[in-house]
Amino acid sequence: MALLRRDLALALRHGIDLLAVVLFFLAAGALFPFAIGPEPALLARIAAGIVVAMAALAALLSLDRLFAADFEDGGLDLIFLSPLPLELAAMAKVLVHWLTTGLPLLLAAPILGLLLHLPGELYGILLLALIGITLALSLLGGLGAGLTLGARRGGILLAFIVLPLFVPVLILGMGAVLAVARGDSPVAALQLLLALDLGLLAACPWALAGALRQVLQ
Amino acid sequence: MHRFANPGRFQRLATRVLPWLKGLTALSFLAGLYLALLASPPDYQQGETVRIMYVHVPAAWMALFAYLLLGLASASSLIWRHPLADIAAQALSPIGAAFTLVALATGSLWGKPMWGTYWVWDARLTSFLLLFFLYLGHMALLDAFDDRNRGRRSAAVLALVGLVNLPIIKFSVDWWNTLHQPASITRMDGPSIDPSMLWPLLTMAVAFHLFLLTALLERMRTLLMEARLRAQRQARFEAMQAEQG
Question: What are the extents of the domains in chain B?
Fold first, then answer.
């Protein structure tokens, strides 16, 4: 808990970093109307997809510093030596990442949706799917950050490693949104997304702690 | 298994076995290619292009098989700190990536006359593309650290995560979109493919397995020699420094 509070306080003290993620998300999303033309009908068709893809990129960009600062100043060694299980400490880190990027992105998503003419009936389901998607991104991304900690060019490598693992989450999350767009029930896709999230939640702490132990040995 | 863990013993064994393996691989490829390209009939629908299958299908099998081996090697390197398992994992991922690329490329060339396009976002194609990315990620991670052991251990964790993830990827893309034909060899009621095509295919599969084994042993041998060379150079460098200091 103390670790959670400390990391949150650190993140909030550098509030501009939080803002940068959201600003990147909005700016990257706003590129699309320039790239494909400002036609409302075309934009409305692909708006949900753009929002989710840009959220994924924004979350990945903020991941490479997840453990890096603590790794460089030795804080990670202290966490390793403390009686707290490394699995729990790793989860605290991942939770902080979600609170400081997933949540702000969730709040900013309707704004980007508005800019891209997202159809009104899709806002609710998109936000619901985004909760599951950003959670999975924080878990998978945390794992990637642990694996690439201290690597040359860690950031790009991290994104490259995480993206293939992230595809199932993206498919299921967008499956729910597309179902609503077709007028079907999104329940099946949402349940599968939830199942995937729970599976990741069960598996990622061990994998991440394993990865961190390799670093600290 | 642990009896062969000694790199020196492995080296001697590999050196003795490899020439035989190479000969056997060449022979089975000759037989397989003869059967596949000359002795087997063209398909009644697909004509001569069906012969692409004799390369495409075994390559795809090997791509998956190599990932399974990679996962096993990574697990034993993490659990038992097996030095040879590390070497095997390092040797396997470029081989697996190559097979995946061959499967993708031949599939793409086959897809053009059959489906009218080089690429579709079909489930199997997509999962193979992702498999290719997993291999490349493994190779990149291996090479990303100044400390080699660190890269090996991180890559081993990644390979295991990928092994767990592969069925999920497979399931999710199947659910997403499918155009590829269903499996026609491994079915409960026996293969639906005609024997005149099954035999060349199986011969090619044997040849591909042998080739995988040959390439793996050869690469492991090279990597071990490389490691020894590096250790010798390091020792010489330190001795020189000791003389000067």
Answer: 18-179+193-215
